[in-house]
Amino acid sequence: MEGKRSYQITEFCHRFVADYIEEGSCCIDATCGNGGDTEFLCRMAGERGRVYAFDIQEEAVRKTGDRLEQAGYRERAVLYCTGHEKMAEYIHQEAAAIMFNFGYLPGGDHTVATQAETSVEAVRQGLGLLKPGGVMSLCIYSGGDTGYDEKQALLGFLKDLDPAKWLVISCRYYNRKNDPPEPVFVIRLT
Fold first, then answer.
1. 145-150: which pairs have CB atoms within 8 A and are 24 or more residues apart?
2. Sequence-separated (6 or more) residues with CB below 8 Å from residue 22
3. How much is the pTM?
4. Does the pLDDT at position 1 exceed 50?
5. Is residue 90 helix, strand or coil?
6. What is the pLDDT of residue 157?
7. Helical residues (DSSP H) of 19-169, grouped into ranges
């Protein structure tokens, strides 16, 4: 990345995840929102790659489709307007990378947000789809309009993963106030 580095959680996750994606990879954006992660995954996976993106809000799926169209990546992605906890019903191949952004759609209705129960189930399904050597990133937001239940449920679930099969790396913006987001990475070892 040239120029000034961004330390926003999404850019931080992009830099980490980029090392795990090769031309032709299958990738999943479990919460496509405004399409930033979907576009990133399409760019990284290349023309031979495939990106599957999920969101429960039609507005998010539309914005993501528009963004991909403008970037010239629309043919690389399959967009689903459904909950991320249903991804295993739609995807039947191993993924090199899976990205999550929990919380609500930026610029959207803050009363529509991811929930602990469905988010943990989505992560569980994602782990089942992740190939050995693959990575999952989780941008966990807990302050403001979103609650702390989802964060606690996700971190509790991840803490109990078998360390012989999974490496879980939890990072913190240590000197930021007001419940900063928490980037977490899960790497499948075997």
1. 145/103, 145/104, 145/110, 145/111, 145/113, 146/102, 146/103, 146/104, 146/113, 146/114, 149/116, 150/102, 150/114, 150/115, 150/116, 150/119
2. 96
3. 0.92
4. no
5. helix
6. 98
7. 36-45, 58-71, 87-90, 116-129, 149-159
